[in-house]
């Protein structure tokens, strides 16, 4: 078994030595799961329970539940027998209208159905945004730490990645000076994630305004990944980047996945926030439409359920989700305070994950974050994502959308 673990560690180290575009979170988590020794037992002779704080899937817990009205909306659409055929490639009209109205609630202008395209989750929306902007010599500015799917999509499209840092001492704000230094005439987009994955940060109105002004100054657009939109439970409310669409064109990416606790449904959106009309130029519109002709969207009956899902989900469901996330984040931070080798520079205020710093000087026989996570998995059956996977060596990403009992149990493993 030891040789197998070494081999797995070598695989991960090979990831690290290559471009970050080769790394996927699911790939590393799969390797971590494989490294768990099935023969590893506690003192009583029974196997230790595997505790996973690596995957951002709230359905894996007993704390977060999909509301019944959401399930009923899908059942109604399916049982109507009206949605067994193909949907338009841009998405069902009623779904696009409903999403436009939903997103417009938080904007100073009204989105139209023509601004909205339905995607297979936010992941496909990410790929669409990169594909739409790709051209010879293009580069894209991505956050570090960030979500590695962006790097993977850029690698496939031949787009150069330039990383700007998020600043932990400033609540993981964007290093705007770095953005200005990195951008040039070939920069096609500045990507942000808000609320933040993997950092658990929420950007203030003022900081988003400065991001928009910076993007305008360097002559690029903003891709705003808002898959965790509205999942903010700290001092700062969630503000969509589209609020600043009059300052700089914004591509908003999102989905039902996190807010409605349905990540497996893979229903997302790609939205142009552009009241000034940049994206409405005929060539741009035609390019987007033609690209969507190549894609297969979510199941037609899922799209048909969207208007009912948005209209019928009660506010109390969202409030309960926020309360649960605040509670589990508090537990996670409290438990971390008692672990000397881990330091949390910023208490999360949103999303479902946080970054913590690993102090290797307090650990014996641990070479880096990857080594730490593999030994934690093998010896204690606890899965945590190494920071290298999201671009920050010797840090850890912890998912706190977990059962409170599991968060407390980790410390005692």
From TrEMBL:
One of its GO terms (molecular function) is pyridoxal phosphate binding. It comes from Glycine max (Soybean). InterPro entries: Aminotransferase_I/II_large, PyrdxlP-dep_Trfase, PyrdxlP-dep_Trfase_major, PyrdxlP-dep_Trfase_small, TyrNic_aminoTrfase. This is Aminotransferase class I/classII large domain-containing protein. The lineage of its organism: Eukaryota, Viridiplantae, Streptophyta, Embryophyta, Tracheophyta. Its cofactor is pyridoxal 5'-phosphate. Residues 49-402 form the Aminotransferase class I/classII large domain. SUPFAM superfamilies: PLP-dependent transferases. Keywords: Aminotransferase, Pyridoxal phosphate, Transferase. The keyword Transferase applies. Belongs to the class-I pyridoxal-phosphate-dependent aminotransferase family. GO terms for biological process: amino acid metabolic process. The keyword Transferase applies. PANTHER family: TYROSINE AMINOTRANSFERASE. The modification N6-(pyridoxal phosphate)lysine is found at residue 258.
């Amino acid at each position: 078994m030891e040789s197998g673990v070494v081999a797995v560690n070598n695989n991960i180290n090979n990831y690290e030595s290559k471009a970050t575009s080769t790394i996927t979170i699911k790939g590393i988590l799969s390797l971590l799961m494989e490294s768990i020794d099935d023969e590893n037992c506690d003192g009583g002779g029974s196997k230790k329970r595997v505790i996973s704080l690596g995957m951002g899937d709230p359905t894996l817990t007993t704390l977060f539940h999909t509301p019944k009205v959401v399930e009923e909306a899908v059942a109604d659409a399916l049982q109507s027998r009206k949605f067994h055929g193909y949907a338009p490639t841009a998405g069902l009209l009623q779904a696009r209208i409903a999403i436009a109205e939903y997103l417009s609630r938080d904007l100073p202008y009204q989105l139209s159905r023509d601004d909205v395209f339905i995607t297979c989750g936010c992941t496909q929306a990410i790929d669409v945004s990169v594909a739409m902007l790709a051209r010879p010599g293009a580069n894209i500015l991505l956050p570090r730490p960030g979500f590695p799917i962006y790097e993977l999509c850029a690698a496939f499209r031949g787009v150069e990645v330039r990383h700007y840092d998020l600043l932990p001492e400033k609540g993981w704000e964007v290093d705007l000076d770095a953005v200005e230094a990195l951008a040039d005439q070939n920069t096609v987009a500045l990507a942000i994630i808000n609320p933040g994955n993997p950092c658990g940060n929420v950007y203030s109105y003022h900081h988003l305004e400065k991001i928009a002004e910076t993007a305008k100054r360097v002559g690029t657009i903003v891709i705003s990944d808002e898959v965790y939109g509205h999942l903010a439970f700290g001092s700062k409310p969630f503000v969509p980047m589209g609020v600043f669409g009059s300052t700089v064109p914004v591509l908003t990416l999102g989905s039902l996945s996190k807010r409605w606790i349905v990540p497996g449904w893979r229903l997302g959106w790609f939205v142009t926030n552009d009241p000034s009309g940049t994206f409405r130029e005929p060539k741009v519109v035609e390019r987007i439409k033609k690209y969507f002709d190549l894609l297969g969207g979510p199941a037609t009956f899922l799209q048909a359920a969207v208007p009912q899902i948005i209209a019928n989900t009660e506010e109390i469901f969202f409030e309960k989700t926020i309360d649960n996330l605040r509670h589990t984040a508090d537990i996670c931070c409290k438990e971390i305070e008692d672990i000397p080798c881990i330091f949390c520079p910023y208490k999360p205020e949103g999303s479902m994950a946080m970054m913590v710093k690993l102090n290797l000087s307090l650990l014996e026989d641990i070479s880096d974050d990857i080594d730490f996570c593999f030994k934690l998995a093998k010896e204690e059956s606890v899965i945590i994502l190494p920071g290298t996977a999201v671009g920050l060596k010797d840090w850890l990403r912890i998912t706190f959308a977990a059962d409170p009992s599991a968060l407390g149990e980790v410390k005692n493993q």
